[in-house]
Predict the 3D structure of the following.
Amino acid sequence: MHAQNNHGRRLGLKRRAVLAGFAAFGLGAALRPAAAQTIAVPDGFLTLSQFLTGRASLDPHHAALVHEGLSLREPALDTKAEQLLAFMQGRGIGPEVLQGALEDAGSDLASLPPLIVRAWYIGVVGEGPSAFCITFESSLMHQVVADRLMPPSLCYGPPGSWSAPPGAAGVP
């Protein structure tokens, strides 16, 4: 009986240690998203992003990812964002004519709007072999079609069905 009690105590201690570990892991996981959302994104960049994407509200965590990714590509991102805002306000132009106005003015800022929009909507910074993905599931392209399409991580049919002509794989 004594051996059984020791065994039970050892299991109890192990069980407590395991439960404490799970609790600590759970607490850490719970704190991580909160910490990620407190990353400060400059107001100028956020205002410019809202203007270019046509979204009054943008997810703070996604904004931090986009800003960080674009900053790697454009070291003077925040300065250029402020200059672009000043360009738009000085001319009183909207997003529909911005790109043409930048190109007509021969502005070195002309490459910035497509870079920002691509990062927000597709989740990719840059093009070609030097491009890198900053986000996928939270990119805006999925939010635009979320009322009709399945979540981006799910497939509509068996592997490879997306390569068959419509109707051949049982897809309407």
